[in-house]
Design goal:
The protein has about 150 residues and is mostly helical. The protein is about 70% helix and about 0% strand.
C-alpha cells in the first residue's frame, strides 16, 4: 500500500508534459463531424424551434458514407485472397488486419448513420408537430430543405 502512495505522490509531482497520457486530448477532431453533432444537439435542445437546414453538412456526410462503403468493398475484395503466395501465417495476419479495418469502418458508418437518422427523425417530428405554424411563416419555410418542404 505504501508503494502505491509513493507512486501517486511521484505522479502528482511530475509536469503534465511528462505524463505518458498527456497529449491524448490533442488528437485533431473532425470539424465537419463536430458541426453535424452540434447541429444535432441544437435540434434536440430546442423542442419548439426548428434549426436552419444545412445542406452542405448533410450532403458531405452522405457522400462520406458512400465513400466508406466503397472502401469496405475494396478491402473485402482485395483482402480476400490476393496475398496467397506469402504462406500460412501471413494470410491469417493479413485477413485479420482487413477484418479489423472493415470493422472500424463499419463502426464509424453506424455512428454517422445514427446521427443522420436521428437528426432527420427529430426534424420531421418538429415539422409534423408545427406544420401549420411553419407553413404560415416565411422565415420557418427558409429553414427547411427542399425535401422537407
Amino acid at each position: 500500500m505504501a508503494d502505491f502512495g509513493n507512486l501517486l505522490r511521484d505522479a502528482s509531482q511530475q509536469d503534465d508534459d511528462q505524463l505518458p497520457l498527456s497529449g491524448l486530448d490533442a488528437v485533431p477532431e473532425d470539424e465537419e463531424y463536430e458541426q453535424l453533432k452540434n447541429w444535432w444537439v441544437q435540434e434536440l435542445a430546442s423542442p419548439g424551434d426548428l434549426m436552419p437546414y444545412n445542406d452542405d453538412i448533410m450532403s458531405m456526410h452522405l457522400e462520406l458514407l458512400d465513400g466508406q462503403e466503397h472502401i469496405i468493398e475494396e478491402l473485402l475484395s482485395s483482402g480476400g485472397g490476393d496475398d496467397n503466395s506469402s504462406g500460412g501465417d501471413g494470410d491469417v495476419d493479413a485477413s485479420s488486419h482487413v477484418a479489423l479495418e472493415v470493422s472500424v469502418y463499419r463502426t464509424e458508418m453506424d455512428r454517422l448513420r445514427f446521427l443522420l437518422a436521428d437528426l432527420t427523425r427529430t426534424r420531421l417530428a418538429k415539422i409534423e408537430r408545427f406544420a401549420l405554424f411553419i407553413r404560415g411563416s416565411e422565415e420557418m419555410l427558409r429553414r427547411l430543405s427542399k425535401a422537407e418542404v
